[in-house]
Amino acid sequence: MKLKHRFVVLLTLLVVAPLGIAFAQKGMGLTQFVKAEELRKSKKHLEAVAEYDKAIALEADNPAYYFNRGLSYSELKNPERAKESFLKTVALRKDFFKAYEMLARISDALKEYDQAAQYYDQAAEASADKSQKINYLGEAMMVMNKAGKYAEVPKYLAKAKAIDPENPDIAYFEARNQNNLGNHPAVIEAIIKVLANPKLQARPGNELAKYHYEIGLAYYKTQQYALAEPHLKKADFGTFKPKVVEMMPEYYLALANAYYKVFDISKAEEYLNQTLAMRANYREATDLAARLKDLRKDKTPAIKAAMDSIQKEKNETKKLQHYCSLCRYQIDASDFVGAAASAEECLRLNQKNIPFIFYKAIGLHRSGDLDKATFELDKITQIPNLDAETKAWFNFALGLMYRDAKNAQLAGTYLKKAMFGPYEHAARLEMRLLNKGKADELGPGDN
């Protein structure tokens, strides 16, 4: 994400009550300040900045003028000038906690995490409101979590506990940090105690989601899946939703099925094993396990029988039908060269037989002919009125083919097209792996 865009996105999350006219000290710059406020509210920020400058020229010691000018610079996607204005604000008025908050958010957007945490700490010191102090210290902890500086969190926790030792939100921040440090048993113990608090139980479900998420994550990380699931279901709100999805057995089964459909059997088995570890009696998972077990059976006798039938058969149509059977056995046996050749023969019966065009493409790809494989698959995706799920299936296969060919651009193009129905989770996972190292690269259960 581009720097200025990150800055604007983060600022839009903040509801800032700008210092209005009632807060401005009456003086020589008031007329210009009033005009600047009208322009700002009309979203004419360039003109507003010009009027704030005039007000400042006449009355240089009024912090309200600098603060509101900073808001306009923020809207103009100019973090550097916004920061200058907010720094001048706190230079003139040390207890101007909203200016520290804005400075923290700018620093966060610029990935200056240590500085952001420091500004949140200063905002907490400047505010006279106890709950607001806790919120600012919580933001400082969140920034340190984002930066991976978990060892820095306890000092903010200590300050928060000194302000309000019984506040359950402090227990949440501590649990989050302990999960990041890998101390999952401590999280379980702490959150069980917090959730027993009658005052907390009176809160609506969406406010309790964060507590259930942390204890659910702790159970998940310690492979106590049966205990994790009920808490994760209660955490299924807002920003926790996508994280919860990736810690449920349905997610792993979707991955297993997607890889099974493109004949990546080792990955299918990996994700199926995870599914069954989480829910042993999951019927759809045991059905897939049976299919995979059958696929692993020795196909040599079936292949030999099909080849014998082809040799003996005099009827051309029936002979081609035997090639269709042979193709499936060869795919299952990982004889991809043979499968591609058999699929070619089978397609003489019907050039539009979509499953066998797919088998041919898989055989070509696995035997090293990427160009022909992608040509065949791409041709299928262009068929008019092809249903969305089938298109997603073939686009997912194309994405994996280009991934294997180290063509990240084309892999990404097709994986995005595959984000539909039963292939959505696997396509998203592959996209994250493709973009490994970016900000959105989080595995299941990561904070």
Task: Give the second-level CATH assignment, the architecture of the domain at 1-111.
Answer: Alpha Horseshoe
Number of helices: 26
Q: How far is the first residue's CA from the last residue's CA?
A: 19 Å
The CATH superfamily of the domain at 1-111 bears the name: Tetratricopeptide repeat domain
Global Rg: 30 Å
* Main sheet characteristics: none
Which topology of the domain at 1-111 does CATH recognise?
Serine Threonine Protein Phosphatase 5, Tetratricopeptide repeat
User: What is the CATH first-level class name of the domain at 1-111?
Assistant: Mainly Alpha
Shape: elongated
Strand % is under 5%
Mean residue pLDDT: 90
What would you note in describing this structure?
The chain has 447 residues and is an all-alpha fold. Among the domains are: 1-111, Tetratricopeptide repeat domain (Serine Threonine Protein Phosphatase 5, Tetratricopeptide repeat), CATH 1.25.40.10; 166-247; 249-295, no CATH class; 387-447, no CATH class. The chain contains 26 helices and no strands. The protein has helices at 3-12, 30-41, 45-58, 63-75, 79-92, 97-109, 113-126, 130-146, 153-163, 168-181, 184-195, 198-201, 205-221, 225-234, 241-245, 249-261, 265-278, 283-295, 300-312, 316-332, 336-346, 354-366, 370-381, 388-404, 408-417, 424-434. The protein is elongated and about 105 Å long. Residues 1-17 and 437-447 have low confidence and may be disordered.
Descriptive tags:
447 residues, mainly alpha, Serine Threonine Protein Phosphatase 5, Tetratricopeptide repeat, 26 helices, disordered C terminus
